[in-house]
Design a protein that fits this description.
The chain has 21 helices and ten strands. It is α+β, with helices and mostly antiparallel strands and about 400 residues long. α7 runs parallel beside α9, α7 packs antiparallel against α10 and α17 packs antiparallel against α18. It is elongated and about 85 Å long.
């Protein structure tokens, strides 16, 4: 096949002055540079482009020297693998020297720098990620990536089993990119290779696994990817908590997200739809997968919050919200809407949806008393004062948050 594809990129980001200056720097005196990977893929698919990464025939040290000679910052973010981050007017661009893999162990690769664009493309994981474009927007395709973009096919470059043995994280990347860019059924050879190679993922760091899962779960509609991950046994391997719970709620959950404008795509909420709401289970899973503190707290709060009945009054819900965790209750109620719809209990689902909307707009009332108020009323400062404040706060809550300072002090 011809390396020059029958398509040209005309997106505005390619005309950016900082990027064109970078081309000037890298292409002087026989150097060559092209935009690579995601920016090219997204442009060809009509999708937004964020980070713009480049590849070059220059060795890493020469990239550093050229950038510094022009007064730009060069950060050796992955210099041993050929990657330098150029910072031009505060905007970062990753620049990687063309390379080929000399040795792989399923996680890391020993690379050799070169000037062969075909070899650099061959070492990439998926055909849709193996495209390049020059500063004029001409697209270079060495792996039939543009054909697969046109058909929304997510396919490994070369032999799928070999690519997975080189780096087993590619299994999760296959499903992540299918969630974002794939159409129809996944590539059969890729699926087969992922199923047979899933045990290789045991050597991956949990941080890398969770990073890929988050990206996959953040796709506009990851339901088909989740289904095929479950079918191949990959999902149970990385999230064993889904074994006895399943993913049946995901399609209905995604439909609700699309219906409700306030329901933004939420990777943690989608994960909740696949696991049992049990505090101990969530604690174990959060630690194993190295969730952030915020992620862990949210998963535990969801598991620890009871689901209110659809017939609960707004007043009683106010009390639950004040005493409990608002986000945890919100997550519980949103999932209950999904389950009620799944049982075709439309009236209860609609009522629960009203409660969700009420909770989304709920403002926490402010307790009108402070310790100083009790002292001003004649109570001596002591450890008992804190307990008395708690008792009065409970009275205030039970009053429907209606008692004011004067009314509460009259009870003290």
């Amino acid at each position: 096949m011809s390396e020059l594809a029958s398509v040209k990129i005309t997106d505005d980001w390619l005309k950016d002055a900082k990027l064109q200056e970078l081309f000037d720097i890298l292409c002087e005196n026989g150097g060559e540079a092209r935009v690579a990977g995601g920016a090219v893929r997204n442009a060809l698919m009509g999708m937004p482009t964020s980070d713009v990464d480049l590849c070059t025939t220059l060795l890493p040290q020469e990239v550093v020297e050229r950038l510094q000679a022009k007064g730009h910052k060069a950060v050796p973010t992955g210099i041993q693998h050929g990657t330098i981050t150029a910072v031009i007017d505060g905007i970062p661009f990753e620049i990687t020297t063309l390379r080929k893999d000399i040795e792989t162990d399923g996680r890391h690769a020993v690379v050799e720098f070169g000037t062969d664009w075909q070899e650099d493309a061959n070492r990439r994981d998926l055909t849709i990620n193996g495209l390049y474009c020059d500063r004029e927007g001409n697209v270079f395709d060495f792996v039939n990536g543009y054909r697969d973009i046109e058909t929304q096919t997510v396919r490994f470059i070369g032999d799928a089993e070999i690519r997975i043995k080189e780096d087993s994280l590619r299994i999760l990347r296959f499903f992540r990119f299918f969630a974002w860019y794939g159409g129809g059924r996944p590539d059969a050879e890729g699926l087969k290779a992922c199923a047979s190679g899933r045990t290789l993922m045991s050597g991956l760091s949990v941080e890398r696994v969770w990073s890929e899962l988050k990206k996959m779960l953040s796709a506009p509609d990851p339901s088909r990817a989740i289904l095929w991950m479950r079918t191949t046994g990959v999902l149970g391997g990385v999230i064993p908590e889904t074994h006895k719970w399943g993913t049946d709620a995901i399609p209905a959950l995604l439909r609700l997200e699309q219906e409700q404008e306030a329901w933004e795509p939420d990777y943690l909420f989608r994960l909740m739809g696949m696991v049992r709401p049990d505090v101990e289970t969530m604690q174990t899973m959060s630690k194993r997968m190295t969730f952030s503190k915020k992620e862990m707290e949210r998963m535990i709060a969801w598991a620890d919050n009871p689901v209110p009945k659809p017939e609960i009054t707004n007043g009683e819900l106010d009390k639950l919200l004040y005493r409990g965790d608002r986000q945890g209750l919100l997550d519980s109620m949103k999932l209950e809407v999904v389950h009620l719809r799944g049982r075709d209990d439309v009236p209860a689902a609609n009522k629960m949806l009203e409660l969700v909307q009420y909770t989304q707009n709920w403002k926490r009332p402010k307790f009108p008393l402070r310790g100083q108020d009790l002292i001003d009323a004649g109570m001596q400062a002591s450890p008992q004062m804190g307990e008395r404040l708690k008792q009065l706060e409970e009275v205030w809550i039970e009053s429907g948050f209606k008692l004011d300072k004067v009314g509460l002090l009259s009870l003290s």
